[in-house]
Design a protein that fits this description.
9 strands, 174 residues
């Protein structure tokens, strides 16, 4: 069974057309969101070469923290950087592996931690035309937390979170 699967994947990879879409040097701006939970973000994407692209993002969202003494609502801020590596390229679409990291902090006393997350996923970026693309994929995040500066404890590993659905639109500039 495994041999057949490996053979089928090898045939698929060998059948990829050589006239793949040119992405080297393309720069775009856009918007995206993740589902579960819903997290909208503004992003940029720059393809350094045809085999690697980077996408910094910035997210602001409102969260509420509740405990037996009441609840607090405030803004959370997230800075992220994703790297896209196309493993299958076609005429107008790339199947990408996505690897990145995020840093999350709050302007309120919502949480007494700073959060760092490593991001792993995959997805398809389809180029509708030379200047516009749609990306849909899935990803998982491995979350680490750093206690506040008032606490001398070490970094705590929370673990792997649930899968996120990932969607973005990008308008590439000429």
């Amino acid at each position: 069974m495994i041999r057949r699967l490996v053979f089928a994947i090898a045939l698929l990879l060998l059948s990829v057309p050589v006239y793949a879409y040119e992405t080297s040097g393309k720069f775009g701006i856009g918007a995206g969101f993740s589902l579960i939970p819903f997290l909208p973000n503004a992003n940029m994407k720059y393809w350094i070469t045809n085999i690697i692209g980077v996408s910094p993002s910035f997210t602001i969202f409102t969260a509420t923290y509740s405990d037996p003494y009441g609840s607090t609502t405030g803004n959370l801020y997230s800075l992220g950087l994703d790297t896209y590596i196309p493993i299958i390229r076609a005429e107008r679409a790339n199947f990408n592996i996505k690897v990145g990291g995020y840093y999350l902090t709050s302007n309120e006393n919502l949480f007494n931690t700073k959060v760092t997350a490593l991001n792993f996923g995959f997805g398809i970026e389809h180029f509708v035309n030379d200047n516009f693309s749609l990306y849909i994929g899935a990803r998982s995040m491995y979350i680490l937390t750093k206690p506040s500066t008032n606490d001398n404890s070490s970094t705590t590993i929370i673990g792997l979170t649930s899968q996120f659905l990932d969607f973005s639109i990008t308008n590439y500039l000429k």
